[in-house]
Every structure is written in C-alpha cells, then in structure tokens.
Specification:
This protein is an alpha/beta fold. It has helices at 42-48, 98-101, 150-153, 159-169, 185-196, 211-217, 228-232, 252-255, 278-283, 296-309, 323-331, and strands spanning 4-9, 16-21, 30-40, 65-72, 84-87, 90-92, 113-114, 133-137, 141-143, 177-181, 200-205, 221-224, 238-243, 258-266, 287-289, 315-318, 338-342. The model has no long low-confidence stretch (mean pLDDT 96). Bound molecules: NADP nicotinamide-adenine-dinucleotide phosphate and zinc ion. NADP nicotinamide-adenine-dinucleotide phosphate is lined by residues 41-43, 46, 158-159, 162, 182-187, 205-207, 210, 244-247, 249, 267-270, 291-293, 330, 333, 335.
C-alpha cells in the first residue's frame, strides 16, 4: 500500500512537521480521494494545543477537506472517479441509532468517528486533511456543486455547516434581530447566512478594524464588545445571538441583550465551563444552547444553498510550507477570515 504524506504535531503545542502513515485499503463502499485543499479551523489549533485534554500525538489535523476522487469501491453509488468531494468533521457512525437514522450522524449515540485525532471503528487512529489523500465511506462525503470554487468551498465543511445548522433551526425571518459574536472563520459565515435569511444582523467584535468587512459581508451594524455604552443601546432587543468565540469569556453581557424567549447559542469551544446565572435566564425566559457541526444531508443542503445564493467564505490561501505560520497567525487572531492550505502548492517537504 502507498504511504500517505501529511503534516503532524508530534507533541502538544508543537509545530506540524512532515509525517508518513498508511490509510486503510479501499473497502466496498469507500472512495479514495486526492486532497486539493484543506481549511484551518480553530478546532485544529485547540487539538494541537490539547486544550480539550483528550488528544494524543502524532496528530494530523484537518477537517475541511476538498478532494478529487481517484478510486471507488465496487459498492459505491454516489460518486465517480474525478468528482470533487468534501469531507467534513466526521467519517463514520453506527448508522442505526435514532440520531443516525434521522441524518444527525454527528450526534451518533455510540459516538461518531472524527476525521482526525480519534479511533475509527477498528480502533485505528484517524489522520486528517493536512495530508495528500483520504479514504472514506461514500456516505460521509458530499458533492461539491460545480458553481463553488473548490478552494473557497473548503471552509464550508466545518465553519459553514457549524453556523448554518443552528441558524437554520432558528427559522430566521425578516424582522428578526440576530447577533454574531466573534467574526473569525465561523462568525463571518454566520453573518452571510443570517443575511441570506433576511435577518437584521449585528456583529459583536473585539477587533474594531473588522467593522468595514462586517458591513461588506451583510451585517447592518458592528458593535465593539468592550464598549459598554454601545452594548447598552441594544439591551433586550435580540431574538437570537450566535457566539462563535474561541477564547474563554463571560456570556452574561449577551444574555442582557436578548428579548423575552431569546436564545443564546454558544458554538465556540473554549475548554473552560460557562458560568451563567439562572436568575438572568428566568428574567426573560431565555434559552442557552449549543450545536455541533451538522449531519451529512444537512451539509449537502448547506453547500447547495451556498451555491444558489452565491455565498462563499473569505479565504487566505497558503502553501504547505506556510502551515505553521498560518497556525501561529490564527493563534493571534490574525486571519481574514479562513486559511486554506493548497495541498498542491510549494511541495518542498514531500514529493
Ligand atoms: P477563529 O477564526 O479564530 O475566530 C474566533 C473569533 O473569536 C476571532 O476571530 C475573534 O473575533 C474572537 N475572539 C478571539 N479571541 C477572543 C477573546 N479573547 N475574547 C473575545 N473574542 C475573541 O475561530 P473559528 O475557527 O471561527 O472557531 C471558533 C470556535 O468555534 C473555536 O472554539 C472552535 O473550536 C469552535 N468550533 C466549534 C464547532 C462546533 O461544532 N460547535 C465547530 C467548529 C469550530 P473578533 O476579532 O471579531 O473579536
Ligand atoms: Zn472545525
């Protein structure tokens, strides 16, 4: 079997470096695909830094994968050789539990298999998309609509579906006031979805310099979250707030901005637990919730929606030799708005 070439962190907080490993051989329902692009999500960084405490090394990150199909197993029906496909955050699940049978594979009761950094059903460690190829059951790959540019489509596989899924369930309409907290990889796409559903969109940011971009992406207004006067002007006015912040922070100020029965959805994943006053929740009968990426069918729906509405992520394209620099800039909140690795560019380490 040919070896796969990837980039792995060999220890917590380490830079990634060239790493060779084996993918499983092609099963009946598997596709093998050559990776063209892979987005860099803050979850890749949380994993490299072992912020959540359950990762082990070597760790090949990457779960926003765009790839071209190079081989198909005899049972494959959805794809042909040459198709451009997407692979997101999960690559297997039990397929029989209630969430799986409802198309919510990510919530599989026995635990979905993550694209990287987890054990698959045979107990083998999964290696992600900072690599040259992937082998996956066709059920867990999605078709990239031809109208989407493949490099720009990459961030949709995690940042896109993670923001689309809760906002879609919120049934946003014209007249709803929606807040997006943190405008990074997830946040900037949340602005675009919320706009497409006709909501009034307000971005809460710590980076005043992002204000013009927020308006360009479809926001009506930007509030610098450290400005208490600006914050107070919005007290009790929001139907829904989506918090995408990657760092520990106090969500209490956002609870004060919600209307009666308003929802605060916390999809950012800093490791520290939240501290929230039940008095504050009772005061306006508020809902605090979260959401995990999305199911496979919903991911396909999101890609088709993006193609139909001309929604595309804002990306900074980097070559393989720039991955560590990009990770470092992501740590410093210095990205506009998603790094995407071009796996074909500047092949200095690997053939
Ligand atoms: P990102 O591109 O780094 O964006 C995070 C944004 O948070 C930054 O752009 C910044 O926005 C804001 N921020 C950063 N540090 C902050 C601080 N100290 N205080 C307040 N705001 C701060 O990250 P991402 O890739 O969008 O991911 C965001 C989070 O979502 C991560 O924790 C990631 O693990 C998580 N995530 C969750 C899921 C899920 O299934 N729920 C899926 C993917 C990712 P401003 O400059 O605008 O303030
Ligand atoms: Zn992600």
């Amino acid at each position: 079997m040919a070896l796969s070439h990837g980039y792995a962190a060999l220890a917590r907080n380490a830079c990634v470096e060239p790493f060779e490993f084996e993918r499983r051989s092609l099963g009946s329902n598997d596709i093998a695909a050559s990776i063209l692009f892979c987005g860099i999500c803050h979850s890749d960084l949380h994993a490299i830094d072992n912020d959540w405490g359950f990762h082990s090394y070597p760790l090949v990150p990457g779960h926003e994968i765009i790839a071209r199909v190079t081989a198909i197993g005899p049972g494959v029906e959805k794809f042909s050789i040459g198709d451009v496909v997407g692979i997101g955050t999960v690559i297997d699940s039990c397929r029989t539990c209630e969430p799986c049978s409802q198309g919510e594979e990510i919530y599989c009761e026995t635990g979905a298999t993550p694209t990287f950094g987890g054990a698959d059903r045979l107990g083998t460690m999964t290696y992600g998309g900072f690599s040259n190829d992937y082998v996956v059951d066709e059920h867990f790959a999605v078709m990239i609509p031809p109208m989407l540019d493949p490099a720009h489509a990459a961030p949709l596989l995690c940042a896109g579906i993670t923001t689309y899924s809760p906002l879609r369930r919120a049934n946003l309409q014209s007249g709803h006031k929606v807040g997006i907290v943190g405008m990074g990889g997830l946040g900037h796409l949340a602005v675009k979805w919320a706009r497409a559903w006709g909501a009034q969109v307000v971005v809460f940011t710590t980076t005043a310099a992002k204000a013009a971009d927020a308006l360009r992406f479809g926001a009506d207004l930007t509030v610098v979250s450290s400005d208490l006067e600006q914050m107070a002007r919005h007290s009790g006015s929001f139907h829904y707030i989506l918090d995408t912040v990657s760092a520990p922070h106090d969500p209490t100020p956002y609870l004060g901005l919600l209307k009666l029965d308003g929802t605060l959805c916390m999809i950012g994943m800093p490791a520290e637990p939240l501290s929230i006053s039940s008095m504050m929740l009772a005061w306006r009968r508020l809902i605090v919730t979260s959401s995990m990426t999305g199911g496979i069918a919903e991911t396909q729906e999101m890609l088709d929606f993006a193609a139909a509405h001309g929604i595309k992520p804002e990306i900074e394209r980097v070559g393989r030799s720039q991955i560590n620099e990009a990770l470092d800039r992501l740590r410093k909140n210095d990205v506009r708005y998603r790094f995407v690795i071009d796996m074909g560019a500047d092949c200095v380490d690997h053939p």
